[in-house]
Write a structure and sequence with these properties.
The protein is built from 6 helices and 2 strands; from the N terminus they run H-H-H-E-H-E-H-H. With 133 residues, the protein is mostly helical. Helix 1 crosses helix 3, helix 3 packs parallel to helix 4 and helix 5 runs antiparallel to helix 6.
Protein backbone atom coordinates (compact mmCIF):
# COMPACT_ATOMS: atom_id res chain seq x y z
CA UNK A 1 0.00 0.00 0.00
CA UNK A 2 2.80 2.46 0.83
CA UNK A 3 4.52 1.57 -2.43
CA UNK A 4 1.45 2.19 -4.58
CA UNK A 5 0.71 5.42 -2.69
CA UNK A 6 4.16 6.71 -3.61
CA UNK A 7 5.22 6.91 0.05
CA UNK A 8 7.95 4.28 -0.26
CA UNK A 9 10.19 3.32 -3.15
CA UNK A 10 12.27 0.26 -3.91
CA UNK A 11 15.94 0.96 -4.51
CA UNK A 12 18.20 -1.24 -6.60
CA UNK A 13 21.10 -2.89 -4.80
CA UNK A 14 23.06 -3.35 -8.04
CA UNK A 15 26.44 -1.87 -7.18
CA UNK A 16 27.74 -2.73 -10.66
CA UNK A 17 25.52 -0.04 -12.21
CA UNK A 18 25.48 2.54 -9.40
CA UNK A 19 28.95 3.89 -8.68
CA UNK A 20 27.74 6.19 -5.87
CA UNK A 21 26.08 3.27 -4.07
CA UNK A 22 29.19 1.12 -4.59
CA UNK A 23 31.39 3.87 -3.16
CA UNK A 24 29.13 4.37 -0.12
CA UNK A 25 28.94 0.60 0.50
CA UNK A 26 32.74 0.45 0.42
CA UNK A 27 32.98 3.30 2.92
CA UNK A 28 30.37 1.82 5.26
CA UNK A 29 31.69 -1.75 5.13
CA UNK A 30 35.42 -1.10 4.82
CA UNK A 31 35.68 -3.48 1.85
CA UNK A 32 35.28 -3.11 -1.91
CA UNK A 33 31.57 -3.24 -2.76
CA UNK A 34 31.98 -6.01 -5.33
CA UNK A 35 33.57 -8.20 -2.65
CA UNK A 36 31.28 -7.18 0.22
CA UNK A 37 28.02 -8.11 -1.54
CA UNK A 38 29.17 -11.73 -1.62
CA UNK A 39 29.00 -12.01 2.19
CA UNK A 40 25.52 -12.05 3.72
CA UNK A 41 26.50 -11.09 7.29
CA UNK A 42 25.02 -7.65 8.04
CA UNK A 43 24.52 -7.06 4.31
CA UNK A 44 20.93 -5.84 4.72
CA UNK A 45 21.94 -3.22 7.25
CA UNK A 46 24.97 -2.22 5.19
CA UNK A 47 22.87 -1.74 2.04
CA UNK A 48 20.28 0.33 3.93
CA UNK A 49 23.03 2.56 5.30
CA UNK A 50 24.80 2.83 1.92
CA UNK A 51 21.52 3.80 0.21
CA UNK A 52 20.85 6.38 2.94
CA UNK A 53 24.34 7.86 2.49
CA UNK A 54 23.80 8.02 -1.29
CA UNK A 55 20.53 9.87 -0.73
CA UNK A 56 22.18 12.23 1.77
CA UNK A 57 24.81 13.02 -0.85
CA UNK A 58 21.93 14.09 -3.14
CA UNK A 59 20.51 16.43 -0.49
CA UNK A 60 17.86 14.13 1.00
CA UNK A 61 17.31 13.52 4.70
CA UNK A 62 17.13 9.72 4.78
CA UNK A 63 15.34 8.07 7.70
CA UNK A 64 16.68 4.64 8.64
CA UNK A 65 15.09 2.23 11.09
CA UNK A 66 17.70 -0.15 12.51
CA UNK A 67 17.37 -1.99 15.81
CA UNK A 68 20.30 -4.42 15.66
CA UNK A 69 23.21 -3.28 17.85
CA UNK A 70 25.94 -3.67 15.22
CA UNK A 71 23.74 -2.12 12.54
CA UNK A 72 23.07 0.90 14.78
CA UNK A 73 26.80 1.27 15.46
CA UNK A 74 27.53 1.24 11.71
CA UNK A 75 24.70 3.71 11.05
CA UNK A 76 25.94 6.11 13.75
CA UNK A 77 29.44 6.02 12.25
CA UNK A 78 28.00 6.71 8.79
CA UNK A 79 25.89 9.53 10.23
CA UNK A 80 29.03 11.20 11.63
CA UNK A 81 30.88 10.68 8.34
CA UNK A 82 28.04 12.24 6.33
CA UNK A 83 28.00 15.28 8.65
CA UNK A 84 31.80 15.65 8.55
CA UNK A 85 31.88 15.33 4.75
CA UNK A 86 29.38 18.16 4.43
CA UNK A 87 26.78 16.24 2.43
CA UNK A 88 23.79 18.44 1.66
CA UNK A 89 21.41 15.86 3.16
CA UNK A 90 21.50 13.90 6.39
CA UNK A 91 20.88 10.54 8.03
CA UNK A 92 18.22 10.25 10.72
CA UNK A 93 18.54 7.04 12.73
CA UNK A 94 15.34 5.69 14.27
CA UNK A 95 14.41 2.58 16.23
CA UNK A 96 11.22 0.56 16.24
CA UNK A 97 10.80 1.23 19.95
CA UNK A 98 11.23 4.97 19.47
CA UNK A 99 8.67 5.03 16.67
CA UNK A 100 6.13 3.04 18.69
CA UNK A 101 6.67 5.14 21.82
CA UNK A 102 5.93 8.32 19.85
CA UNK A 103 3.02 6.86 17.87
CA UNK A 104 -0.41 8.36 18.31
CA UNK A 105 -2.33 5.77 20.40
CA UNK A 106 -5.18 5.77 17.87
CA UNK A 107 -2.78 4.34 15.27
CA UNK A 108 -2.67 1.07 17.20
CA UNK A 109 -5.66 -1.27 16.86
CA UNK A 110 -7.91 -1.94 19.81
CA UNK A 111 -6.52 -1.57 23.30
CA UNK A 112 -2.97 -2.41 22.23
CA UNK A 113 -0.33 -0.06 23.61
CA UNK A 114 3.15 0.43 22.18
CA UNK A 115 4.64 -2.25 24.45
CA UNK A 116 2.11 -4.84 23.24
CA UNK A 117 2.77 -3.89 19.62
CA UNK A 118 6.53 -4.17 20.17
CA UNK A 119 6.16 -7.59 21.82
CA UNK A 120 4.11 -8.85 18.86
CA UNK A 121 6.66 -7.51 16.38
CA UNK A 122 9.54 -9.31 18.13
CA UNK A 123 8.21 -12.62 16.78
CA UNK A 124 9.02 -11.42 13.25
CA UNK A 125 12.28 -9.53 13.77
CA UNK A 126 15.33 -11.02 15.47
CA UNK A 127 16.87 -7.54 15.70
CA UNK A 128 14.31 -6.45 18.29
CA UNK A 129 15.60 -7.11 21.78
CA UNK A 130 13.49 -7.58 24.89
CA UNK A 131 12.19 -4.50 26.66
CA UNK A 132 13.82 -3.84 30.03
CA UNK A 133 11.89 -4.52 33.20
Amino acid sequence: MLLTAGRVGLLSDDVSTNSVLAHELSLVSGAPAADRIRTSKDLGELMVIAHACSLAKEGVTAYIVIDDGNGRRLAKAAQKRVEAAGYSGALALLSTRGILEQAEPSWLKGSVDWRDAYARMRAFDDGLGPLPG
